[in-house]
Design a protein that fits this description.
The protein is of the alpha+beta class. The protein contains eleven helices and 14 strands. The protein has helices spanning 12-60, 75-81, 158-206, 221-254, 256-271, 276-309, 317-326, 329-333, 354-371, 400-403, 424-434, and strands spanning 62-65, 68-71, 89-94, 100-103, 120-126, 129-141, 146-156, 313-316, 339-342, 349-352, 376-383, 386-393, 438-444, 447-455. One of its GO terms (cellular component) is plasma membrane.
Length: 462
């Protein structure tokens, strides 16, 4: 099974839980190290005073007799050290010259640099085991004896290690209990936070494949944003499916009559030689009408597709007008009719799709050539923050009662005389709506004008 298979992908809950467990494991290691360090420090603070107390008791028991120190080891000194019964004890008493007066040999005095009256601590070894030593001194200033006597007391560190480990175990136990509680809480909270996703997944799985209606946006802001994006995607998909259905429906409905008429005219032309020229003329007229219908139907399907799939880009409307006139389609559509261009020197920028806008203007021009009065003018203008590309003829235009329906599909006027498919202005209206614009039909001085208006895009100044 490939590695990208859903069976090998971790769920979001498992990923978050792995992250939480990793953080807890790292935190546990840090807490263990900190607890052990704290335990050693606590053990040192607990046992070092016992060593100092024992050493001071021994130092206080020293007296001078006949010019020599006399040592009477007190039982209380060793009673303090007996609080750690499993540890071995070391003691040594040295004179001012470093000579051993009593006790065990083998442990050197600490360096005498600095103040010799200070209590000195050091770590060392006692018969191969780690040990802790402390040295205190007592100053004698008598006629027969003068100088410092140094008392060193040591103890192995088994009790200290046991205390440090005990404190560490207790801290780790509390940390483990807190970690378990945190894991359970995190799991509950994560599952609760992921519940809207589970609900969304269930709704999607049980939804009809043909149901593209918007979904209810509930739950946290992140889920709402995701549902909104899905709804926008389904909206575009619904429009695409609708456009495809309309194209299929329109094709089935609109082509039936002209195809039947073409077939009938062809059959009549074959049967009646006397009427054949008239039949052929009608056949050519029907064929042209069918070609116009197919061209506009495909043009509308192309525009609807690009509206939902092509991102709008800044376009100079003057370039659209020039492109439409440079194609010279109007010379084939209406030979001999005068078509003029009216644009300024300044750019007129708008956000739109170039192909869709070109198709819209081409249909505006074709509509004017079929039903208007020459000369026909293609122009670009600006009114405030509105950019417009328009087509104007010198005729009066359709009546006001007819204009409201001209932007609908397959809407024909009586003046069309079968030469129009009724889709041209519906394409213009669809393009205008797609880019936040309008299609406006109005009488102006000198004739009738159809305009496609769009919000003006201000040019960036350097």
């Amino acid at each position: 099974m490939p590695s990208g298979s859903p069976h090998h992908r971790w769920t979001l809950v498992s990923r978050v839980m792995v992250g939480v467990l990793s953080l807890l494991a790292l935190g546990g290691v840090v807490v263990a190290l900190a607890s052990f360090a704290y335990g050693r420090s606590a053990a040192r603070q607990a046992f070092d005073p016992l060593l100092v107390g024992a050493a001071q008791d021994i130092a206080e028991s020293i007296s001078i007799s006949d010019g020599a120190p006399v040592i009477d080891l007190p039982v209380s000194a060793f009673g303090l050290l007996s609080l750690a019964p499993d540890d071995r004890i070391f003691y040594a008493i040295h004179g001012p010259d470093g000579a051993l007066l009593t006790g065990y040999d083998g442990q050197d005095l600490p360096e005498r640099s600095g103040n010799p009256a200070q209590t000195r601590y050091r770590d060392g070894a006692m018969q191969g085991d780690a040990a802790r030593f402390v040295t205190v001194s007592r100053l004698f200033s008598e006629r027969a004896y003068s100088g410092r006597v140094f008392v060193t007391v040591g103890q192995t560190m088994q009790a200290r290690r046991a205390m440090a480990l005990d404190l560490t175990r207790r801290a780790l136990l509390l940390t483990a209990l807190g970690g378990i509680a945190l894991i359970v809480s995190a799991f509950v909270v994560i599952r609760s936070a992921m519940r809207p996703l589970a609900v969304l997944t269930r709704d999607l799985m049980h939804r009809d494949p043909y149901d593209l209606t918007p979904m209810q946006a509930g739950g946290p802001a992140e889920v709402t944003i995701m549902v909104g994006a899905m709804n926008r995607f389904m909206g575009r998909l619904d429009r695409q499916v609708g456009a495809m259905k309309n194209l299929i429906s329109d094709t089935a409905h609109q082509l039936r009559t002209p195809v039947a008429a073409i077939r009938a005219q062809a059959e009549l032309a074959l049967e009646d030689e006397a009427q054949r020229p008239q039949r052929l003329d009608r056949l050519v007229l029907r064929t042209r009408s069918l070609g116009t219908l197919l061209d506009q139907m495909l043009s509308r399907a192309l525009v609807i597709h690009r509206i939902d799939n092509a991102a709008p880009t800044p376009i100079d409307l003057r370039d659209i007008a020039l492109t439409v006139l440079d194609s010279r389609d109007h010379e084939l559509l209406a030979p001999g009719k005068d078509v003029q261009l009216q644009i300024g020197e300044d750019a007129v920028m708008a956000l739109a799709d170039e192909i869709s806008l070109t198709e819209a203007v081409r249909n505006m021009l074709g509509n004017a050539l079929r039903h208007g009065t020459a000369p026909v003018v293609v122009g670009v203008s600006v009114d405030g923050d509105i950019a417009a590309i328009w087509v104007q003829d010198t005729g009066p235009g359709p009546p006001d009662a007819v204009r409201a329906a001209l932007g609908q599909r397959f809407e024909r006027t009586a003046a069309s005389k079968g030469n129009s498919a009724g889709l041209g202005l519906s394409i213009v209206a669809a393009v205008a709506r797609a880019f936040d614009g309008q299609m406006i039909m109005a009488n102006v001085p000198g004739g009738f004008r159809v305009s496609l208006t769009l919000p003006l895009k201000q040019q960036d100044t350097p």
